[in-house]
Design a protein that fits this description.
- The protein has 189 residues and is an all-alpha fold.
- It is built from ten helices and no strands.
- Helix 5 crosses helix 6 and helix 7 crosses helix 9.
- The longest helix is centred in the N-terminal third of the chain and has 23 residues.
- The radius of gyration is 18 Å and the shape is elongated.
- The termini are far apart.
């Protein structure tokens, strides 16, 4: 039950961080939304700061778990072909994350406004992904930066997010990686 309660609390915090922002997200509101007593919330998260930090870490962990499922060994590919396959899995994972109706990135951004130190797990993940793309042909870094741009756009202005346009961009990024894997798109030296 503690794992389920923790998940309900994180889901409630995600919802509230998107709808009322971190400033309006009280521990009482999170507890009520999750259907948990305030004491139950405090057992799992002794402060709002701890709850917001866990919210960010939860998203990073979920993304890494998704990548592990899609491409085991993605963080340490054996060769360029394996790195390109892992990069392709990353584009698909990013695309799937962005397709979600309730964008978790909005909740993450709301938490980041509360304390910039919450960015640490995201920066660590980005470093792992960057190292992955650095093991690919140089052109793959264009894909990495394209994905970064789409994440940034979704986080900064979710109200104007154009999912269809982003979907088309993710498909193009994936096709570029496919072309690189086939040796057809190498143009940088």
């Amino acid at each position: 039950m503690p794992v389920e309660t923790r998940k309900r609390l994180l889901d409630a915090a995600e919802l509230l961080s998107r709808t009322v922002g971190p400033a309006g997200m009280s521990l009482d509101a999170v507890a009520a939304t999750a259907g948990v007593s305030k004491g139950g919330l405090l057992y799992h998260f002794p402060s709002k700061h701890a709850l917001l930090r866990a919210l960010v870490q939860n998203h990073v962990t979920a993304f890494r778990d998704d990548m592990d499922r899609r491409c085991p060994g993605w963080t340490d590919p054996g060769d360029e072909a394996a790195a390109l396959a892992a990069a392709r899995a990353y584009v698909e994972a990013a695309r799937e994350t962005m397709r979600q109706t309730d964008a978790p990135s909005s909740g993450i951004f709301a938490a980041l406004t509360e304390d910039p130190h919450f960015m640490e797990p995201l920066l660590e993940l980005r470093d792992v992904v960057r190292r992955l793309f650095e093991r690919c042909p140089p052109e793959a870094m264009l894909v990495f930066h394209g994905c970064e741009g789409l994440f940034h756009e979704r986080m900064i202005d979710p109200a104007r997010w154009d999912g269809e346009r982003a979907e088309a961009q993710f498909l193009r990024l994936g096709r570029l990686l496919d072309a690189l894997a086939e040796g057809r798109a190498r143009f940088l030296s």
